[in-house]
Amino acid sequence: MNRLARESSPYLLQHANNPVDWYPWGAEALEKAQQEDKPIFLSIGYAACHWCHVMAHESFEDENVAAILNEHFVSIKVDREERPDLDRIYMAAVQALTGSGGWPMSVFLTPDGLPFYGGTYFPPTPRHGLPSFTQVLSAVANAWQTRRRELVEGGLRLAQAIQRQMFPLEPETPQPQTLQPAILHQAVHSIRQSFDPRYGGWGSAPKFPQPMILEFLLRYALVTGDAPALQMVTHTLEAMARGGLYDQLGGGFHRYSVDAHWTVPHFEKMLYDVAQLARVYLHAWQFTGDPFYRAIVEESLDYVVREMTDPAGGFYATQDADSEEGEGSFYLWTPAEIRALLGDQAAPFLAAYGVTEEGNFEGRNILQLKGSLAERQALAAARRRLLEARQRRPAPRRDKKVLTPWNGLMLAAFAEAARALGRADYRQVAARNADFLLRALRLADGRLLHVWKDGAAKIDGYLEDYAGLIDGLLELYQTTFERRWFDAARELADAMLERFGAPDGGFFDTSADHEALVVRPREVQDNAVPSGSAMATVVLLRLADLAGEPRYGDAALESLRLLLPLLARYPLAFGHWLTGLSYALAHPRQVAIVGLPAVDDTQALLAACRDGYRPHQVVALGAPGDPAPLPLLQGRTLVDGRAAAYVCFDATCRPPVHDPAALRDLLEEKGYGPMRSA
User: What is the strand order of the sheet 402-403 is part of?
Assistant: First the structure.
């Protein structure tokens, strides 16, 4: 056992028996590198990463490789999900050095943390143009002895490049003073140019789901009536849900497709993918009424309840791509296996799900829906029977750590689905999760922690922790109207502004009192999840409307203006920022409903707010005579003894209405226009 045996991360524990003398990131390892004047070998990955497992078996379990590492380096292993700050810094270094990145990430550092060489996976023997890992180690060890000054100077230049890459605005870039709809139109035009009209999505293989772009396009289509924008969304959503990217039996989405047509996935499942895609499909159902989208939402959320929820209430991080029989084997089928389980129903199932004798993946079949949606519905019982049989197979491992930002995304999905679909069970899941997060991952002074596992929480929270949890709490408040969720969101927002604000506007990823690193990370591009800065901007815009406090909106608009020059030019990298800009420009409605929650007239007004897709509104509900109402409800009363809805937008409040139809009319006035506070 090495030092990783004392860690809680499943990824680090996977390496606890390696002959490599691993250290976790921390003062002990850094001081050892300084004292022994050795370079650091930093290996970053995560538990569900297939190629991380491959490199571990090929190299880190090898005694000869371990001997080289132990003699010439201080070796540090990092779980990227526990330390996103280190992952972002050193991934930017690898991308600058090699032009690409990924995991496992292999980076060589000076004893004070400056990166000077790196890559991703290195094979045990030279192949495909890559040197062997031992060749790399020997070359770096030699260079450290013979060309150290050159390496250090290169590391200093690389640190400067990392800072520029994270916040890619030149100082002389003119900053627009107003937010303009033209930016959104230009972004949609650019998005359309790279759209795949045949298979949906953007780019070629490997193809990622891009939930933030889909979300932005839905909002754009809603406000502008742009049919091609909506068609990009619906075509992509149907193609993904029909393909192997979607788990046709168990629900939930795999990480990405290795091909352009969504057939063969990389089989790992990430909580953040399921959370974001469940919300996009929910919104598409609200927009179009297509029951297929609703089915995908419910199957995906039911998967999380069934397989990814800790007894304490948190949601697990990932499910592995590998199981005992190899990558993806848990999900694969032969016709004979299906016939043995379904009997007379096998033939229609085989046809509907494209199952053949030759298979579509290593001689077996990844299920993909080839038949009609009516056939899918008719085969629901057959799918359940196969799922029950699959549950008896050796299951992929789960990384059972609970990450605050990913839980915030999932909390928001459950809370929003609960009110949109009328699912009381989802509401209970959401409330239990929020209670757990605030109890287990928030300290007495209000600060958040980043990760929880086996009853213990650790690591100071990052910007994404605060922004993600605020998002979930705001959605939960608007589902339950329990004041405690709003109060918690506002307290976290105040802490976020104080601890992460940047002098020029916007935010840093780490707090002011965080551990000093070679750069203070400030990632603004969206990746698999929204950047912390983008999410903070969006939640502050919504909180400003719900709380009636301009300071939240002012901070959000200041952050948004910094990024305006990049949004139209590189929209695929700034999808969540575009969602924030669309919210700011869409005349968002602030709706205050006063009435007894259980009374029919109050429920009718709430139903009007929840009817259809309404992303550009916030809703508060209060009983008459509440001694401590939300700011949006202050001064609001019943009218003629009846429940009333007060709607404000563009800094103007309309007269209260009783009639749900009149409320819908106020909510459905559309069109982008000048900023309300520009």
Answer: 402-403, 449-453, 456-460
